[in-house]
Amino acid sequence: MRLPLIIDTDPGIDDAAALSVALLHPSFDVKMISTVNGNVGIEKTTANALKLKAFFNSDVPVHRGATKPLISKVIDASHVHGESGMDGYDFPSLSINQLASTNSITAMRDILLQTDTPITIVALGPLTNIALLISTFPEVKDFIKEIVLMGGSAGRGNVTPLAEFNIYSDPEAAHIVFNCGLPITMIGLDLARQSLLTHDYLASFEHLSRTSAMLYQLFQHYREKDFAQGLKLYDVFTVLYLLDTESYETHLADVQIELQGTLTRGATVVDFDSPYPNCTIVTSSLNDNYRSIFKNTLK
Which residue intervals define the domain Inosine/uridine-preferring nucleoside hydrolase in the entry (predicted)? Predict the structure, then answer.
């Protein structure tokens, strides 16, 4: 049986890799794509989601979500992903008529309340939309299997010494989500930092398939730290994990979000010794299966 997904995303080059796997792999049934302000502004993340929808000739509906965080000031990561958020590939021009709606929160509610099978939410960006969904329509929680999110860290951050970008972008939303009582799997910086994709590995993408060639061109414009050694494609590990959960080391923990600290705002405070865990944290890969799964899906 295919795993039904709702994907909430802020494309973003590594988001494009995750969406490519999710839309291509026969194990997934993507019900909708929800966009959020994050790597770039909401108009650009929405345009990028529509570009990918058109690239794959997909019938998965794209809905525009939150334009800004609940409280925080808007930040972006255009210095990492480029001005458009997906610099590096010449996508065909798109029509905004492809957008299914401008309210992804109600769209997610409608899909969840009509489902016969609980749906997994894959969150690739700031958690603003997910927090609004479960706060405004708490009845949907009965229809959510789990939330698998890219965000946070059990160690150091990447936008401040202790905070990861997606959580830092909207800490209040993250606080709501981590304390909502639903099963949560956190795939933070720790996993991708230990699973660097080398340039030699990625070089084979250039001629593997139409999709891999598109991603290869995007990757040349992805300017995360350690680019000289390889790429840390954080978001793609959400879907790679769902395809092969037994190949990853996980630990239960209580994760709380620092909201007040001047130097620590947005940090994920991880307590592996708590008797009341609220989250499963994926800390590392146990093998190299993710490399073959990623490549074979694109092939």
Answer: 5-284
What are the pLDDT digits (tens) for 59-71?
999 999 999 999 9
Indicate yes or no: pTM above 0.90: yes
- How many CB atoms are located within 10 Å of the residue 28 CB? 20
Q: Which residues pair with 120 in a beta bridge?
A: 5, 146
What Cα–Cα distance (Å) separates residue 120 from each residue in 8, 109, 147, 168, 295? 11, 13, 6, 23, 23
- The alpha helices in 126-207, defined as continuous H runs, are 128-136, 165-169, 171-178, 189-194, 199-203
DSSP, residue by residue, 241-256? HHH-GGGEEEEEEEEE
Q: Cα–Cα distance between 120 and 297 in angstroms, integer?
A: 20
**Tokens at 66, concatenated:** 């939150």
Structure tokens at 217: 């061109």
Give the C-alpha distances (Å, rounded to integers) separating 139 from 156, 255, 258.
Answer: 35, 24, 27
Q: What is the pLDDT of residues 240-279, one digit of tens each?
A: 999 999 999 999 999 999 999 999 999 999 999 999 999 9
Tokens 């794509």 -> residue? 33
